[in-house]
C-alpha cells in the first residue's frame, strides 16, 4: 500500500525543501522530491505545513499521568501522550530502584519493545549515581556498579538496554563501563561529581552521552572546567539537554548548541505529569509535586524531571534560544538516532528511512503524527 505525502514544507537535518513530496511503501520512505509527485493509492495533502521527521526521545520517565516505572499498561498510556506530541520513537527510562525491581522492569520493557517497534528499549538512569547528585532518585537504592550486577541487568533486558547513566568517579565505574561497552550499551555520565579528567577518562573508555547537561553535575568554573567542557571538547559525545526553560536557561542552551554543533539531543526527562495537570505524582518510590508545570520532590526545591513534550522543546529552541530551525529539528531526530547507532534508518525524511513524520503548523504546534507509515 503506497501513500504520497505532498505539498509539504520539509525540514530535517539536511535542510528545507518547499513543495516537497514523499512516497511511502509500508513502513519505509521509498522516494522524495518536490513539485508534482507520483501516483499512489493514498494521497495526504500536507497543505504547505511543516513536515519534519518523527522525534526520538532518549530519556523520559512518563506522561499523561502515568510513570514508566509502573508496568506495561502505564508505559502504554504514557507513550500515547508523547506520541500525540510528535515523539514516534522512545527509550523508556527507569529511576533508581532495588536491583530485583529493575530487573523485572527491564524484562517488561523487553517484552514491550519486541511487540512495538516504536519502543527502542530501556535506559537505566539509576542506581549507579553519586549520592550528592542524586536529584529525584531515592538515595537508599543507590549503589556502586559491581560488574557482575551490571551483567545481571544486561541479561534481564535481553538485548534491549539502550543506555545507562553512571557516575564515573564511583568505585568500579570504569570497569563497569568496559562491561557495558562490550555488551553494546550506550553509556552516559551523569548525576556525578566527576571532574574534567574523570569525564575525559570515561569518554576514552567508551561513554558517549552526558545525561541532561548542567543538571546534577558540576558546572563550568574558570579553574575547574568539569564534565561539561570535557563533553564540549569531545566530538564523540552527545549532550542531552532538557529545554523547558527551567532546567537550563535558553541562552545557556544556545551556548550548548554553539559549543557542540550536531551533538545536542533534546530530551524530555518527562515524568508522569507531562501532558497532564498540576498535582502530586509518584516517581519511583518518591512523591513529586507539580505546580505551574514545574516538578519538584515534595517539600524540597529539587527539580524532579520535567513536564515537557518534545514539540514544546522544539518551540523553545527556535523561539527563545534562537536556534536555526534545521538545527533544532536535528536535535530531536538525527542526533539521538546517531547516538544510538540508528542513523541509517531514523532521523531524516529520505529514501530508505522509517516513515515517521510530524505535521506542524507555522507556529511549531503539532498537528498530525505518523510512524511506520501509519497515522498515530
From TrEMBL:
- Ranges of residues in domain Amidohydrolase-related: 51-367
GO molecular function (one) = N-acetylglucosamine-6-phosphate deacetylase activity
Source species taxonomy: Bacteria, Bacillati, Actinomycetota, Actinomycetes, Micrococcales
Origin superkingdom: Bacteria
Kindly provide the name given to this protein in its UniProt entry. N-acetylglucosamine-6-phosphate deacetylase
Family, as annotated:
Belongs to the metallo-dependent hydrolases superfamily. NagA family.
For this protein, the record's Pfam families field holds: Amidohydro_1 (PF01979)
InterPro entries linked to this entry: Amidohydro-rel, GlcNAc_6-P_deAcase, Metal-dep_hydrolase_composite, Metal_Hydrolase
Q: Which UniProt keywords apply?
A: Carbohydrate metabolism, Hydrolase, Metal-binding
